Amino acid sequence: MAVRVRLLPLLVLAIFGCDDDLAPRAVDLALGADQACFLGAVDEAVDAGGSVDAGTDAGVDAGEEDAGIDAGVEDAGVEDAGVEDAGVEDAGIEDAGIDAGAEERDAGVPTDPGVPPRPAGIPFCWGAGVPDVTPLEGGLAFTSIALGAFACGTDVTGALYCAGANSRGQLGDGTTTARTEPAVVPGVIALAFDVARFAPASAGFACAITTTGTQCWGANDRGQLGDGATLDRATPAPIAGSTRFVRLALGGAHACAVDEAGALWCWGANDQGQLGDGTLVDRAIPTEVPDLEGVVEVAAGLAHTCALTAAGAVSCWGSSDEGQAGTLVGPVLAPRVIELEGATALASGARHVCAIGADGRPRCWGANESLQTGLGVPVPQTSPVEVSVEATRIAAGRANTCVINRGGSILCWGAASTGLLGASVEADSAFPTRVPGTP
Prior knowledge:
disordered N terminus, Methylamine Dehydrogenase, Chain H, single chain
């Protein structure tokens, strides 16, 4: 059953655009390269003036102008969001507009019947081309979202919807036709999913862990679909092997996934050692990362990868020209331990990495030209920099970092040019700033 949300457009835009106190509590957060969305709790959005129609339609009525996560909906104020950064011209659509760069997403569908799913939320987005935090009017309520040069989200049933650029078949609908309205990816009930990290529209791909295994689709010139070939696929196809995965993350042209035993497997591009197998050779099938055990979370950047273990240790490898792997000497071909203990969560930007420590405070390292690590001096950081904010969730984009704090509010730091700090902020900032219009 798909949950469809009908908002009263003028009322909701007025409420959420002007009165921060009435913005709904954030239940999830995703960053693209230069844009961000949070999911606002459905019950609180409804209290503010909307209504919920929990219908039985699991699909999208393509004839409804207000359906879904249409990145080009004029009423939502996202008409020209981030087109140039996403390379959307290649998709033949001028307003697809959500940039690359999502971390691995848990779709919120439990594998254990005793574990409740994540709550559904309405997307509220801001950033490049979207100066004010804006609710995406009249669409689906999602349990999780991911932003690339195309965008995907899951509803409460695990059904996966995608929209945006599609020149490589990355929407998974069997075509290469871009969509401004979301369409269900046929046959996919996602337990976890991700879209291509920081890839342009002309190189997008996606993967999902389903009840029957892991499937990928889209661009495959570097073997990033993991099927043993290098041919694009416009529909989901199983990756090679029978390993069962529970978590995954996609980088620029590589993918990594955690299996049920806590081992990490990677495939795709390896020109910077981002697969962690000690070589610079691309792999078209999943290849286990040696000497790495107990992995519970993985994060992928443009050309680097990091893993978090159950013991709270973080290791990184791949490109390290900005300190992503804890050194300025690279590439790093095998996991390298970061000077950090007790980490509980992990996120990667294009060239920087952040983890939440045991005390709830983020620590970030890597590229810092826009102060995205939280240090006020714009030089690369090879050691984690503590950021003075308590966080329950963290996400990273091209040159920004954002968190949800314990009160459900959103704070961001880094580049001002992206608009992620708020339309009125003109200077980069290392200080966590509450974004106007967010909770």
